[in-house]
Amino acid sequence: MKNLFFLFILFGFLNVFNQENPINLDPIERLERGNQRFIDGKPSHPNETALRIRQLKDGQRPFVTVVSCSDSRVPPELVFDQGFGDIFSVRTAGHVIDDLELGSIEYAVEHLHCSLIVVLGHTHCGAVKAFVDSKGDYKHMDHLKSVMDFIGNEVEEKRLIASDSLSLEKAIDANIFHDVHLLRSSTPILADHYYSKKVQIIGALYDIETGKVRFYK
Ligand SMILES: [Zn+2]
Questions:
Q1: Å from CA of 213 to ligand 1 middle
Q2: What is the pLDDT of residues 86-106, one digit of tens each?
Q3: How far apart, in whole angstroms, are the C-alpha atoms of residue 206 and residue 104?
Q4: Going by C-beta distance under 8 Å and a sequence separation of 6 or more, which residues neighbour residue 126?
Q5: How far is ligand 1, taken at its centre, from the CA of residue 5, in Å?
Q6: What 3-state class would DSSP assign to 153?
Q7: 1, 84, 100, 108: which sits with the fewest CB atoms below 10 Å from its CB?
């Protein structure tokens, strides 16, 4: 009987230890573990039950805001193996950020107390490729021009063009850091939260061929 009790305690301990999303886990580590499950082909699909949906009816407390591309190959909940209520998601082609997106991100930080923002770029990004192909001089007068203008409106991207060393890989990285710098310096909300260490703001790159996310810590 005593042994049975011991096994019961041990099983309970291991079960807690193996939980996909222990609440005391660092939010970046939580994303890394979820991404590893995804890569291994063993997603646990946490927080996708009807119970979870009902638990969230009165409010949400996402542990991360992911700013990512609208690209259909980069759905954050699948890439990080998360569920309802876990990720506050802001997505535009090329993860460009204007006032409307900033308002959404500020809402997540200020009102939902989200303590981590990840700017998630990805390999083979079509929006960045269009920018690179046009060498920063997109001619068409459609609304995609606004996306191109944003991508090109950053020091590193201008330097790459000026030094004739613009490549898709370099431009994708530059576009990630463009957003990271923009968010860290955005007043009045995000800069204050970032410099007082209430929120972390980091970049990451998703490889659409392997599924791996590399964080720029
Ligand atoms: Zn993209």
A1: 14
A2: 999 999 999 999 999 999 999
A3: 22
A4: 71, 93
A5: 53
A6: coil
A7: 1
